[in-house]
Design goal:
With about 70 residues, the protein is mainly β. Helices cover about 0% and strands about 40% of the residues. The protein starts with 7 loop residues before the first strand and ends in a 16-residue tail after the last strand.
Length: about 70
């Protein structure tokens, strides 16, 4: 959400043990998909709570691929 408008939908989400944060993939309206855009994710738990989120590049963990591969 941006304000009261719904601008997309989360397709999957999970806790990242490496980043220590919750991450998600989402489909967003192109007008709000710019890197760095602040959005809110509405929870479907019956409490109408929203969580802050930010649009980031897809390879946000190790974009330079400097971590060794196992």
């Amino acid at each position: 959400h941006v304000g009261r408008a719904q601008i997309g939908v989360v397709t999957s989400g999970m806790r990242s043990p490496v980043l220590g944060k919750t991450i998600a993939l989402a489909r967003l309206d192109v007008t709000h998909a710019e890197i760095g855009t602040e959005v809110e994710i509405g929870k479907l738990d019956g409490h109408a709570k929203r969580l802050p989120a930010r649009v980031v590049a897809f390879a946000h963990y190790d974009p330079q691929k400097t971590k060794p591969r196992s």
